[in-house]
Every structure is written in C-alpha cells, then in structure tokens.
UniProtKB/TrEMBL annotation:
HAMAP family: YcdX_phosphat (MF_01561). It comes from the Bacteria. It comes from Vibrio stylophorae. Coiled coil: none annotated. Pfam families: PHP (PF02811). Zn(2+) 3 binds at residues 74, 102, 132. This is Phosphatase YcdX. The gene is ycdX. Keywords: Hydrolase, Metal-binding, Zinc. SMART domains: POLIIIAc (SM00481). One of its GO terms (molecular function) is hydrolase activity.
Length: 251
C-alpha cells in the first residue's frame, strides 16, 4: 500500500534523537513522502523541550525540501484521568497531536487503568492519534478503546519502530491484534515511523507488510493519500492547516 505521510518523527530537540528538522525533511523528500509530522516529545519526557518550543513552531515553513511539514507533538499521558503534558494554550498552534504512554512518565499499571486513561484522553478532544499502543507494558481493552477512538475520530497508529522490534520489545503481535480490531470496527489507522534518526523517515516496510497481510482497505489508512489525510485533519478541526495544504496541493 502506498503511504505518503509519516505522522510520527523526532528531531534532536527530543533529547534522544539525532537529526535536525532539515535533515528529516530531506529524508522525507528522498523517500517520496508528500507530508510529514514533526512530533518531538513534550516536556515530561526526560530531555524534552519547554512548551514554548511547540508554540514557536509557527516559524517553520510549510514546505522544506519540497515536502509539507505539519507542526506537531508527541504528548505524554500523565494519569488515569487522561491528562497530557501540553498546556491548553499550546493546542491552537499544533496541527497534529499524538498521545502515548512512556514508562518514565506514566508508571505501568493495570489494563483497567490504562484503558481508562486512553478513553479519557480520546474524549478530551485534544489528541488526533494514539501512539505505539502495542507496548506490552501498557495492556488495555482493545475493543473498548478502538470503539471510543472511532466515535471521536481519533486515529490508531501503526508504529513502524515497534514492528521492527527496535523499541517496546514484544509489541509485534499486539500491534497486529490492535490493527485487526481497528479494521473489524471500521476505525482509522495512521502510520508513523517514530524515526529518531533521519534515515528512518518514510521507511515503512514492516508497516506495509502488515497492512498487506491484513488486507486493510485504503480508506481506513489516512496516510494513504494527501486528500485522505487532509479530510481527517478537517474532521479533527484543523481547518486552517488542511486548507493551506489543500491549496498548495491544488486539491
């Protein structure tokens, strides 16, 4: 399946990644991407930037090296109430918000508590996607969370790094099961490399293999085409960003 958007990438600003935004953009262009989201870690993650870093992303050009850039963040789930570590005042400045569990920020608890946190963050309306849910340290009720995400137009990420076994060891079978549940319920999938170095940007081989094996319909993968992705942004209320890119792509 063709994938033209990478919705999860990091720069050295995250504190444990090793490329610049320009290097990521160049790599995205070389891989034939049309858009990518820059999603550095929010402030609760060790080494992550202060929240003003995310507000000031407005200075980033909409195109770098010929590829469109969405200004985003990978926010941390903080508690069972579904709070994330981005102040509300930052939200209007962001095009794309991922919410993820990270062990240094959210101590692994029970499946019930993880499920509650995910349901609450979805219902908050503040996040566009849930990141790397396959992590076996954060078990949850797949069916309940997928149903809630579908109802609130939140995408479930297929995380290429998890599928490669580089991060979150033991995620592969869970990633497949979560994707199967999304497909069964008619929800939406997004694709992110979770690249922490530029050479991984747009490198989706394990993700594409999984999508092929599961025979997922293209309409369920929002990163399959620019129009699909911009439609999703409009659904999520990111109208200005979607309109700007629609004009640039003459859609």
């Amino acid at each position: 399946m063709q994938l033209v958007v990478d919705t999860h990438t990091h720069t050295y600003a995250s504190g444990h990644a090793y490329s610049t935004l320009l290097e990521n953009a160049q790599a995205a262009t070389e891989q034939g991407l049309q858009l990518f989201c820059t999603t550095d870690h929010a402030g609760s993650m060790p080494g992550a930037p202060y929240y003003w870093f995310f507000i000031n992303q407005r200075v980033i050009p909409r195109k770098l090296h010929g590829v469109g850039v969405l200004r985003g963040v990978e926010a941390n789930l903080l508690n069972v109430q579904g709070d994330i570590d981005i102040p509300l005042e930052v939200d209007p400045h962001l095009d794309w918000v991922i919410a993820s569990f990270h062990e240094p920020v959210f101590r692994p608890q029970s499946a019930k508590e993880h499920t509650e946190a995910l349901l609450r963050v979805i219902e908050s309306g503040r996040v566009d996607a849930l990141g790397h849910l396959g992590n076996p340290n954060f078990d949850f009720d797949f069916a309940e969370v997928v149903s809630c995400a579908k109802a609130h137009h939140v995408a479930i990420e297929i995380n290429n790094s998890s599928l490669k076994g580089i991060s979150r060891v033991g995620s592969q079978s869970r990633c497949r099961a979560i994707a199967e549940e999304v497909i069964r319920q008619g929800g939406l999938l997004t694709t992110g490399t979770d690249a922490h170095f530029c050479t991984d940007i747009g490198q989706f081989a394990p993700t594409q293999t999984l999508l092929s094996e599961l025979n997922v319909e293209t309409q369920q993968v929002i990163t399959h085409s620019v129009p699909q992705f911009l439609h999703f942004l409009n659904q999520r209320g990111h109208h200005a960003c979607a309109d700007e890119f629609a004009a640039r792509f003459d859609l």
